[in-house]
From TrEMBL:
<keyword id="KW-0732">Signal</keyword>
<keyword id="KW-0574">Periplasm</keyword>
<keyword id="KW-0813">Transport</keyword>
<protein>
    <submittedName>
        <fullName>Extracellular solute-binding protein</fullName>
    </submittedName>
</protein>
<dbReference type="Pfam" id="PF13416">
    <property type="entry name" value="SBP_bac_8"/>
</dbReference>
<feature type="signal peptide">
    <location>
        <begin position="1"/>
        <end position="19"/>
    </location>
</feature>
<dbReference type="InterPro" id="IPR006059">
    <property type="entry name" value="SBP"/>
</dbReference>
<dbReference type="InterPro" id="IPR001188">
    <property type="entry name" value="Sperm_putr-bd"/>
</dbReference>
Amino acid sequence: MRLLTTTILATALAAPVFAADPELTVFDWAGFEEPSIFQGYIDKHGDSPTYAFYGDDDEAFQKVASGFKADVVHPCSQMVSKYRDAGLIEPWDTSKIPNFDKIDPKFLESEVFSDDEGVWYIPTDWGATAIAYNPETVTEEDVSTLQVFVDPKFQGRISLPDSSDDVWALAYLATGVTDWTEITDEQFAAAADWLRQAHQNVAAYWADPSEQAQLMASGAVDIAWSWNDGVTYLRADNYPVAFQRAPKEGSSTFFCGYVNLKDGPGSEEKAYDFINAWLEPSAGKALLDAIGYGHSSTEAMATIKDEPAVAEGLSETGAPILAQTPNSPEQRERQLAEFEKIKAGF
């Protein structure tokens, strides 16, 4: 299954999954092509943008840096500085984005996103990374701690994301760290040692939420470090899955959004139409239903505040949280290099 899904993903990444409006190319995570999320764009132009997909933020950056042409890309917050430092993006003109002032200010606090030169990032969506598990084979006591990932009882029964940011968020939490903006050498070493222990239990590193859902639905694994969408997909298929966001060490949160690539091959006007469709309040419900994520717009969140999926997957838990906000590029590169060694068995 790992080989099959990896082959399928590689094929998907080699070219757009579907070519639609040729005047706008969106380079995005698989799953975000759901038309209801940007319905306003379709209403105006009669079709979806052309999409190309990736499964990992670092992979997406490398492809764009190597010359892949698109108009907008959907990185998570900790990646924006890399796009800026590489000179790949330009600021958005917020005068062309009527709902920009509806974005919750907490998503724009970093100078990486907004400074004297302009607004470099339009946050759109956010979610949690926590423990997805099969309650028919795993007990609540088992998942009351992140140490379930290193428990010998579950050797060969867990899956972790093939994402450096997410696995390091897990490892830092598991070793008592909830702020990754100031990591000491000792904290890094402790987290790396913990990840090496967890690696012994890993049946597969999932490349995207669909693959994670397939691994769990097939019975290949019982526990995964999961985003909201993996749980959403499993529930849509009536698979028994629970989402533990309050183990004693805590869980992680992240947020993502769109950057405007320099010299995009398509229509700049349509790039703004796409962003404006995303920021419509109606996109909140569409995003929640399709993927299980929250929306950056306070108006959009107000429309879904009473939804059960918000209560379970997005609300406050009282447990510690490691927020995946921007950290130093040097630290991210160090983590990425170490993660590659760990996956290789070193």
